[in-house]
Amino acid sequence: MTDAPETEETPVAEEDRSVDEDYALDNRAVAQVLEAVAEGDKARLTALFEPMHAADIADLLEQVEPDERRQLVLLAGSLIDGEVLSEINEDIREEVIETLTSEQLADAMRELESDDVVDIIEDLDEDRQEAVLDALDMVDRIAVEQALSYPEYSAGRLMQREVVIAPEHWTVGDTIDHLRGQDDLPEQFYHVILVDPRHRPVSYVTLGRIMSSPRTTPLASITEESFRKFEVDEYEGDVAYAFNQYHLISAPVTDADGRLVGVITIDDAMAVLDEEHEEDVFRLAGVGDESLSNSTFEIVRRRFPWLGVNLLTAILASVVISLFEDVLSAVVALAVLMPIVASMGGNAGTQSMTVAVRALATRDLTGSNAWRVVRREAMAGLLNGCLFAVVMAFVGSIWFGEPLIGVVIAVAMVVNLLVAGLSGVLVPLTLERFGIDPALASGTFVTTVTDVVGFFAFLGLASLVLL
Amino acid sequence: MTDAPETEETPVAEEDRSVDEDYALDNRAVAQVLEAVAEGDKARLTALFEPMHAADIADLLEQVEPDERRQLVLLAGSLIDGEVLSEINEDIREEVIETLTSEQLADAMRELESDDVVDIIEDLDEDRQEAVLDALDMVDRIAVEQALSYPEYSAGRLMQREVVIAPEHWTVGDTIDHLRGQDDLPEQFYHVILVDPRHRPVSYVTLGRIMSSPRTTPLASITEESFRKFEVDEYEGDVAYAFNQYHLISAPVTDADGRLVGVITIDDAMAVLDEEHEEDVFRLAGVGDESLSNSTFEIVRRRFPWLGVNLLTAILASVVISLFEDVLSAVVALAVLMPIVASMGGNAGTQSMTVAVRALATRDLTGSNAWRVVRREAMAGLLNGCLFAVVMAFVGSIWFGEPLIGVVIAVAMVVNLLVAGLSGVLVPLTLERFGIDPALASGTFVTTVTDVVGFFAFLGLASLVLL
User: Fold this and answer.
1) Cβ of A40: how many Cβ atoms within 10 Å?
2) Which of the four pLDDT bands, split at 50, 70 and 90, describes residue B259?
3) Distance from CA of B127 to the nearest CA of A (A)
4) Please, which residues have CB within 8 angstroms of residue A307's CB and are 6 or more apart in sequence?
5) With an 8 Å Cβ cutoff, are A354 and B55 in contact?
6) How high does pLDDT run on average in chain A?
7) Residue range A71-85: average pLDDT?
8) Can you tell me the distance from the alpha carbon of B241 to that of A273, in angstroms, rounded to the nearest whole number?
């Protein structure tokens, strides 16, 4: 919106510039919008929204309080268009849709491409789905219903049905003439897909190549090597991986018979990658699917199970400690020092695990280098273990004036960091082998192992040496 | 490569299909390549590489052992082309480049666009940089040297200098005629950028719109609203954010005088987002910049400092414990239970922190909703604290037959989970305010707080109640 026309209200024009400079909302923009809402000033709200990108309006809706949001949507009405709806986080989208009138919703939906409608509709409950479907033209409705018949998270859900195709034998001139005759081309397209007589995609040509070639050039002579196609039921994560790995901009999608049914573009793939990133980061930290706009009760409900699992593993570690009550009563220094061994093991394990989980996600850790990585992590754990063992031998001996305590903590440190390095790789690899997302469960397993091994090694050795 | 021509060697053709099916390397592909290398069979290696995408060849180079890699590069020679080099992880790229002859390197560089050459060259040491620059044509060399004069991580480093422009007053017909006359258009381009007489970009037109409009249509009448431009010295992270937020495909870059100097395309932005994401995941886990191809010593060296910081914070927690040696000697049950309080606090804090760090990275957590999020996290911590307090009151009382122990752990749990929720948001917010990457340091601060508070609350209360 760099060159958005200036409006008469100075604050809006200034707002515009500051939105543009930061590529994000600033506090002032939010405050001004809320002011307009409080005053019920639709004209001002319209002026404030005018220079804003749909994505920024969506962010604004996500950031305000739930009742401010309702007021805002009520006042904004048709300013919340299809683009804004498709940018909004799904957690609050339903809430926004419920506040809109059916007419506003219908208008909003009509301007969207089929993939965006599907993306919005799939998260709604059935009544709302029906309402949105009713708002669509018959052609769009059939397209959307067809898309919804594909499994969730499949290429079929991700694709748009609007495609630009040409028969294999066409020339550049044929193609340009044909396109000039079309009046509902997709909003964004980057390739003309070549199809055979049975409507199967065989290759594609970039628009750049078409435009820079003489009219008589056969399309078949300027096709791109990068061509890849996907089947409707392929997992969206695999599609996104391929877009990222092979730098695709768009790719055709085929049905089981190989016939062209749609096209996936890079913005769809980027959205999937973004979601997968967020999921990985959250799962590694034991956070489920949540967002900043969730209420307190929702996040309590979503985080409770993970904390519950952690409680069980923490109790397991305590049971291990309780096996050594004798030596703990005799030498209280052990109670002081034992968390250090567990903490260092937990951290080293988390380091190895994070690298392994990430490498599995980017498919850099495979059967062919797994053993090399396991060996490397074990060696690294052992080496760091030895380094910190020396440090702790001194600290332990000097702090408690008892060299044997230093020896015990040093040995436990080496053992636990070795185990941390090993389990940091082996746990995610094993989970992946059994088809469990390693991001989801690795953390709990790895820290349980390092806690149990850490306490057992430290207190067990202490029992042998100090009692 | 779906439609790669079949070769005579059956295994290769099969390989091809399996690479395509999995969108990644499989073990067999790697094993076959290593076999060919062991036999010094260049013909077979060529046949094996033929159907593979440069990105997959790069992955293969990353996955094999260092000496296998050297053998492979020596045999492959010019098969390691510019595209493969630009796909390779920078940690091993230098190693691969050193194995290539200067002639092979020169050939590889010559086929790349200026942004890819810059991306490769900026990580090399000076001697190597000189060698690569010498391999380039004068025009390319000047372009690359110019790009290297922009700060690291700036839009100037990211952009390619090859641009497709048109004066504002041109028509669709003018543009197509002009493009047909060009013989070195960029490999990928999606927009024609309109420039004013002083070579400042004012808008752009998608190729799709140009192709589907009559020849007489003025370009100025079919420009895109999505137009955004960047300055050469803007931070690449801001550029990538804008591409993602506003669904950009390409965007012009201007110098300080607003003149067009290059264009950034979505693949560059995706690469930046990917790097930033990896950095965040790694930093949250206390892992520096590392990759699977790093040697054992390299990862020991990179992880040691983080473990060192953790050791200091663990010792701090131990000092807190040592304040309560009396009560620990008197009631050994406390030593058994205390890690539970710290562990639950650490986990709850990590949950809040991860959500906050992620929201800061995606710019969803801003000044306008910070207080709401802080309140929400505090409330959620308090509620989960109360829930787990009830559980632990029972467990503690029954396990050790002493209701007071149950009371102590319950109260400590509530306190620590409240503190965990608060510090989980406040620490990242504070770091961000001081310009420190919250992903980098939040984890250490938050777990230090929850450890110290957890031990202090639990043992302190126990001293008051049980002694």
Assistant:
1) 11
2) very high
3) 30
4) A286, B344, B347, B348, B351, B384, B388
5) no
6) 89
7) 92
8) 14
- CA of A376 to nearest chain B CA: how many angstroms apart? 5
Question: Hey, are the CB atoms on A310 and B211 less than 8 Å from each other?
Answer: no
Residue B122's pLDDT is 84
Say if residues A155 and A232 touch (Cβ distance below 8 Å): yes
Contacts of B451 in chain A (CB under 8 A): 339, 343
Taking an 8 Å cut-off on Cβ atoms, the answer to whether B369 and A295 are in contact is no
Beta bridge partners of A206: A191
Q: What is the pLDDT of residue A24?
A: 57
pLDDT at B415: 98
Considering only CA atoms, which of B249, B79, B121, B55 is closest in space to residue A247? Answer: B55
Q: What is the DSSP string of A186-201?
A: -SS--EEEEE-TTS-E
Structure tokens at B58: 């790069």
| Res. B389 pLDDT band, cuts 50 70 90 | very high
Structure tokens at A240: 């996104």
What would the two tokens of residue A396 be?
């332990």
CA distance B145 to chain A (A): 26
DSSP letter at A154 equals B
Residue in B190, B290, B313 nearest the CB of A355: B290
Kindly state the average pLDDT of the residues B257-265: 95
| CB spacing of B281 vs A278 below 8 angstroms | no
At B1 the pLDDT is: 35
Please give the pLDDT value at position A248.
93
Give A-chain residues touching B379 at CB under 8 angstroms.
Answer: 296
Write out chain B residues lying below 8 Å of A405, CB-based: none
pLDDT at B43: 94
Contact B325 A306 (CB under 8 A): no
- Taking CA atoms, what residue in B is nearest to A282? B354
B311/A391 CB distance under 8 A = yes
Give the range among A354-358, B102-106, B245-249 with minimum mean pLDDT. Answer: B102-106
Mutate which: A254, A315, A324, vs B, most B CBs within 10 A: A315
The span from the CA of B308 to the CA of A391, in Å, is 10
Domains and CATH numbers, chain A: 10-158 (1.25.60.10), 165-284 (3.10.580.10), 296-466 (1.10.357.20)
Coil, strand or helix: which one is B109? helix
Rounded mean pLDDT, A8-24 = 37
